[in-house]
Design brief:
Layout (H helix, E strand, L loop, with lengths): L1 E6 L2 E4 L4 E9 L6 E7 L6 E7 L5 E3 L7 E6 L4 E6 L8 E8 L15 E2 L3 E6 L1
Parallel strand pairs: 2-11
Antiparallel strand pairs: 1-3, 3-8, 4-5, 4-9, 5-6, 7-8, 9-10, 9-11
Length: about 130
């Protein structure tokens, strides 16, 4: 079993920054890839970013446009999402997720992830 716990959400003004954290635990977790998704009220879950525990590869949703950065600390079993230049349209619940997928294209789709955290609320005021 894999357990994921997100933290770091909150209320910020437009143009501000937040860093989200996802602490992971469970068997054979080092073989997984990690993703961040977000979901605003009344909208579908949207891919934000992904990273592999092994190797440097990262993946981003098109809307990020250089504002967000995903990173990891393998020793702490933690993945981070640094969000800069936040906009009101970034307001959503942000989820981290884990998958054993080994091909890159599949990382963009929520249906391919096996484990999910409870989410953390990010609200950007205008």
């Amino acid at each position: 079993q894999v357990q994921l716990v997100e933290s770091g959400g909150g209320l910020v003004q437009a143009g501000g920054s937040l860093r989200l954290s996802c602490a992971a635990s469970g068997r054979t977790f080092s073989s997984y890839a990690m993703g961040w998704f977000r979901q605003a009220p009344g909208k579908e879950r949207e891919f934000v970013a992904a990273i592999r525990w092994s190797g440097p590869s990262t993946y981003y949703g098109d809307f990020v446009k250089g504002r967000f950065t995903i990173s990891k600390d393998n020793a702490k079993n933690t993945v981070y999402l640094q969000m800069n230049s936040l906009k009101p349209e970034d307001t959503a619940v942000y989820y981290c997720a884990a998958t054993r997928l080994t091909y890159s294209i599949g990382l963009y789709y929520a249906r391919n992830y096996d484990y999910w955290g409870q989410g953390t609320q990010v609200t950007v005021s205008s």
